[in-house]
Amino acid sequence: MKRIFDLVLSVISSLLLILPILVVAVFVKITSKGPILYWSGRVGKDNKLFAMPKFRSMKTDTPAVATHLLQDPASLLTPIGGFLRKSSLDELPQLWCILKGDMSFVGPRPALFNQDDLIELRTQQGVDKLLPGLTGWAQVNGRDELPIPKKVALDTEYISKKSFWFDIYIIWLTFVKVLKRDGVSH
């Protein structure tokens, strides 16, 4: 059921969002040097790595670490990078990962390949058995502002509450948070 929901919603979303996706792609290309997409190594279900695309919001020589670990992340943003991140438009290419089956609409956000502390805690709690998501219970309860143990606690809570209607509730909360730009620190 969850896979069918993901497929149907990702196809509908892709069709509805094709124009904004193209517009963002053009603006990324004309406002900074480098590729339109940034592909990062992410940890998926059963801790298998997959390539996750985002619209490139940072300069091409930015280190591949979590943004909160960068000394001055604002100095590394492209001219439209801040807007892309705050509006979450940089996440639109991840519809491709949902279509492919690497991700779901709802699940724990995929860790970067080098976030060893997050990966280890999730593995201990069984969170690694879930498909990562475009959004998740931790994202609607703090997004970028949560410490790793709290994120994993919310991911674990998601496992116990997981259902079709709970996913719909999380998608709704995500929509509201994105509109309010709530919980985005960089």
TrEMBL record:
Residues 2-180 form the Bacterial sugar transferase domain. InterPro entries: Bact_transf. This is Sugar transferase. Keywords: Membrane, Transferase, Transmembrane, Transmembrane helix. It comes from the Bacteria. Belongs to the bacterial sugar transferase family. GO terms for molecular function: transferase activity. It comes from Thiomicrorhabdus lithotrophica. The chain crosses the membrane at residues 7-28.
